[in-house]
Design brief:
The chain is α/β, with parallel strands linked by helices and about 1550 residues long. Helix content is about 35%, strand content about 15%. It contains 49 helices and 49 strands. The strands form nine sheets. The protein has a seven-stranded mixed β-sheet with strand order 2-1-3-4-6-5-13, with helices on one face. A seven-stranded mixed β-sheet has the order 8-10-12-11-14-15-16, with helices on both faces. Strands 17-18-19-21-20-22-23 form a seven-stranded mixed β-sheet, with helices on both faces. Strand 3, helix 4 and strand 4 form a beta-alpha-beta unit. The relative contact order is 0.04. Bound molecules: flavin mononucleotide and iron/sulfur cluster. The site of flavin mononucleotide has 26 residues, from helix 29 and strand 27.
Length: about 1550
Amino acid sequence: MATTLKIRSPGEAVARIAYLSSDTIISVQPAQSIDSEFSSHLYRYAARNDKSIVAGTENGVPEIQTVRSNADPLLSVFTPIRNGKLVSVTTTSSILVASVPHLYRLAALPVVIHVSLHPAHYADYSSITAIRNTGFTFLQSETLQEAQDIALTAHALAIKSGKGVIHFFDALSSAEDNHIPFEDAEVVKEILNLGAVKAFQSSRIGGTSIYADDGRVATITEGVTQTTPMTGVEGASSLAVETIASELPSKASSVGSLKSERESSVESKATISSATTVENATVRPISSDDVYNFVSAIWAQLKQTVGREYTPFQYSGPSNAEDAVFIFGSDVGAFAKAIDAAKPGEIYANVGVVTVRLYRPWLGSKLIATIPKSIKRVAVLEQIRRKTTKWGPLLLDLLTTLKASPGGGVETIVGHQLGYITADTVGQALRGVFQNLKSEKPFQNLEVGNPHGPESSQVQDFSQPKVESAYMKILDQIFGNRLYLANAIGKENAGISPELASTPEFGFGSLLARKEHRQKFIREVQTAVASSNTAIPEELKSLLSNWAASVEDDKKANELADQIIAKLEASGSPLSKQLLSNQGLFRKESRWLVGSDAWAYDLGNSGVHHVIASGENINTLIIDSTPYSERSAADAARRKKDIGLYAMNYGNAYVASVAVYSSYTQVLQAMIEADQFDGPSVVVAYLPYFKETDSPLTVLQETKKAVDLGYWPLYRWNPQNEARSEPNFSLDSERIKNELKDFLARDNHLTLLMKSHPEFSSHLSEDYGSEVRALQKRNAKDAYAQLLEGLFGAPLTILFASDGGNAESLAKRLGNRGKARGLKTIVMAMEDYPIEDLPTEENIVILSSTAGQGEFPQNGRAFWDAIKDNTELDLASVNYSIFALGDSHYWPRKQDKHYYNKPAKDLDRIMSNLGAKRLADIGLGDDQDPDAYQTGYQTWEPLIWQALGVDKVEGLPEEPPPITNEDIKIESNFLRGTIEEGLKDTTTAAISASDQQLTKFHGTYMQDDRDLRDERKAQGLEPAYSFMIRCRLPGGVSTPKQWIQMDDISNSFGNETMKLTTRQTFQFHGVVKHNLKSAMKAINQALMTTIAACGDVNRNVMCSSLPTASKYHKEVYSWSKKISDHLLPATTAYHEIWLKDENDKKTQIAGNAVQDFEPLYGPTYLPRKFKITIAIPPHNDTDVYAHDIGLIAIKGRDGNLAGFNLLAGGGMGVTHNNKKTYPRTGSMLGYVAKEQVHIACEKVMLVQRDHGDRKNRKHARLKYTIDDMGVDVFRGKVEEIWGQKFDKAKPFKFQSNIDTFGWQKDETGLNHFTYFIENGRIEDTADFQMKTGLREIAKVHKGEFRLTGNQHLILSNVADADMPKMKQLMAKYKLDNYQFSGLRLSSSACVAFPTCGLAMAESERYLPELITKLEGVIEENGLRQESIVMRMTGCPNGCARPWLAEVAFVGKAFGAYNMYLGGGYHGQRLNKLYRSSIKEDEILEIMKPLLKRYSVERQEGEHFGDFVIRIGMIKPTTEGKTFHDDVAEEESDEE
Ligand SMILES: Cc1cc2nc3c(=O)[nH]c(=O)nc-3n(C[C@H](O)[C@H](O)[C@H](O)COP(=O)(O)O)c2cc1C
Ligand code: SF4
């Protein structure tokens, strides 16, 4: 019967075997839409529903997962394989090196990775040698037939050995092979061993994290009978085979045996069959010999069934040869052919060829057994293009095997680098090799063949993830219908493959063609206009001739284009139709070529180079998606070239480096400049991602790291600037990498830059890196050592790790006490300690708190990482003890109990394992104890003194009390401190600790970017400090002009965004120190201030925004201003520090004290912050119960404001697990007429000033003063100093505390629109130009803006006449949209990460995501329109007033929240803890059914917060003091 030979390529042969032998195939592809050499086949089989032999899926079709090659593909292997799935991977070699961390772990799992070596036209074997020590078994195939057989071997071997197998091949080697028959399914079944398959599939390997080493080792159980079922699993039919091969497959498989006259020496060995049962089975890890035995058994089986023979090494040639080549590279066949054809006298006649089939484990003894004893010299040819070591890896293998082992007769082994060889050059190459080999002193590392490989094809992996559309959108946004994309992805380039279409050459060509096309079109138009006999109306004619005269002027040409097109469309004449068919050419297009970073690998030859060299006016946008962290881990030798630098060096191109997630504005600027630049432009754009599904948050964080550390600087380079005497280079970020610095230094650009930005100089000239960090540690420790010199007494080193400061202050106190006892004490953070010194310590004590979920605090992690797996430290002469700070209830679930003080306990164990002796047993501090961690500490500390023999020291000095905020205030000279001096210090971006407290009174906080902390620490840099500035804006009313000024400030000095806060004001983030003063000045120039926006003073006074009653609003609002002004601190320090210029000298009184006087506050101000708000019933949109003073406006009979009901003692701040802290709703003191209200407020504040707790800041708010005193006593005290009495409170009614979105008309006929500003963040994104839009609106708006207490914004007082304009602008910027779910509209979140230093969990960046996840259920249950007040904060400080929400989430640790239920809908009732420390899955598990239940069971008009109480889910909280009572969660105390 005739055989139809079907398989044409090794990719196909391998795909078929993988398909038959896997449950899951990870198909690694350049992009989702671009096939690999395997994937098209895989999808074909799956589409036909072909069955796999092993797949345990319902339909027997294996699962195929497509993963993009730069999306960390091997990560996808872990989950399925741990669940008993047989997993294989089909990929090119390009992913291997980057996957090394995974490979190490995967080696102990039976995964098969089929690797086609790349680049396809000239394979580089270094990607294999680079990973040779990962523990995988490596098999190589060379011919098409081998690809099939070795693929099968790989699967069988993985199953049998339980270890990972990599099968690699160079597809080009077999390109000329004859097609081969399909595999025989029966053979595949037999060889795979279905019994073993079943056994694996029913196992679960466990381990959920790829980071935690599950310690898995592939093992073998010796002495147990292995059964090998010969028949397949019932019902499993396999891959459809159109024609079954019937001919006995050819015997020939390996290169050598192709030639009949060549002998083949194969060391054959009997199959190991373990048919005997041995009683005592033992389990041990798989050894190299085991692998060899398994693979031999498989090959023996193959030989039996298909007649082809394989061995770990293959020798072909005469059995008495003296010389041999060992080839590790492509096209062994060409060498073999040439040797076969050698004439007798040829130097390479009669030599042998050795190749390797089983590359790892490397079985040296098998190699010795394989090659004839007569061999004396071996030439090793390695096709390793990216050499990292001097000697090739294979040469080293051979040297150790053949030279070091006895019995080998080989005398000479010479390594050669194998380049690209063709049939024409192979003879010459061999001659060179053997001449060298046989010479007296052969050269090592001689190059053979062409090291650069073939000239042609530069095809690179090309992929475009979805996220990259951000840049496309921006291009589209800027240039609109003027944009011409040469190689738009997804655009059909008829008949051209995506690979080709994605090359720069193609795009370049198409752009040139487009240009010519337009020239032709212009001529056509000119001809038409000139010829008198064409019937063109005069008007059109003049338009056309105007146009023809200004074709290169984008503005004019485009304006005319619009008119012309409209006219042509109306006309309908044949000429019009003809012109219209090319209407795009009327516009002066902005021509762009868009590509990926793949273009960077071969810059000199790439099209990018052509574009730049051409000098054509073409813009290139290159998107780089390699995450910084991935790159920094990658092999330095493989680093991409820097396209930006390349282009700048070229001289004639405009170059910009941008990152949309770092500065949106800079992207716009660069693209516009690129377009305007007459010549080539290159914009390199950063958009790092690991997976296509990465959330914007990940992309944002990666971008920030890269930009911040100078890996991806933001800059613009315009070589035409010089002519205008402007600098060519502008730096838009703060740090640049060395290469760029060198470039700039060359032509004096750096000096210019430093001149224009003196503040950058410290960064620019700074080198960074981990060496710096090591040096810093050394210096810190040495400085200490010097201090201690000359002191006597035993040394005691005290290390601490602390996030919140408890462990740190304990450690410092311990240090002082040690010193007092005569010990030489050092106190340091764990991260600052050079760990190599540990063995030399005599006594070391470590205090560590617990963070995250049983983790070390940030400043303990590096130490822990260095010690945890360390086996080298010998601590035999070290005495140590550990004190742990934690909270036994932080993670209340029983199964989470082990997180209690976990890091300290772990460290205690490790230190002991390393031989250190305990001074005292570990001490355990627990927040739950009566005195919190102090309870445990009190018994631990004396044990240390005892152990060190200093417990009986007499006459210890009294300890100085710790410095408190009260001390700082007193010492500050009315809030001056050393702020001025600190601002001038350019050596650090920070200010001193006490000034950090004081600047709060001036409205600014120092923060650091928490996304960057770890990375910067690792680089030896101080944290990325910047300042938050908060304005004071009574009632939240701003003029349009002020809005624009605020917008400017955020762009010039901040991070290009603004936050509208829950207290109705503007907040800026990311203002660096050297911009702080300018920003403050600018705010004051806008007639706003920041004084007393934070700090222990009365802060911004809020007022309901009331869009429906403008007259009344105006009246009430004026009182918020009056109260605010009345309670303003009087210190002139604010003016002095921020506003005065050089000449504005304040008279200083003798002794350098400025005469200041605070009539209301006195020198120590208030014990704690103080907040006042006004609500106008029925709107409680300012949460009147949540502030120290809540004023409820009361209307008189005449419809005007009469006075206020005054509530006192509301407050939100709480500390987790500290029941002495609680949120509180204000208590009613009574009614006060409006004329007296500011005085009443003042008196309440004064009673608090004098009676508030100044010892304990956690107990200092007015709410505790009132509860401690009782409401009536408190009221009495206020009335006493006021000299008046409160009236009985007047009746009032609230309906809600949320905003009403959309248009509303007020009583005067003016219009108001409430925008939905999610969580108050004003920013531009590629999708939504909110910030720009609002700015445009502010430019023309004649009314005012009102910020609401829910972080939204009202466009107020729009006259009917102005409505069309406003509506049009709003539509243009999509600002008219408020069609969101009621849940989203009623939600709010605080800032939290990355700027808030107190955040324990994400808030603003996460709440929108959580809501999205709930909206499905909301829709399903018809709750879309229902308003449910949901709030989230990153910590219990409660900035978004979570305790009053119907449902709230308060951050507990990264990704974990406490959940509260039962708040009152209009902010009148506190909620209560429902569950603590839960994560997203649990939140959804609770919320989804609950929402459903609410939709079904709620009563008419019943709000969610009332509902959960009625159904008994939660008890109502009646007042602050009962907040912690009757919580729903049962905590178990059992261990
Ligand atoms: C975000 C966060 C997570 C915590 N996780 C744990 C934990 O997993 N186990 C534990 O015992 N204590 C935990 N705690 C409690 C702290 O370790 C404890 O409050 C300690 O006193 C804080 O000390 P520090 O101020 O030095 O950081 C956690 C505290 C916070 C704020
Ligand atoms: S609630 Fe906490 S995390 Fe959120 S902004 Fe306020 S202090 Fe920061």
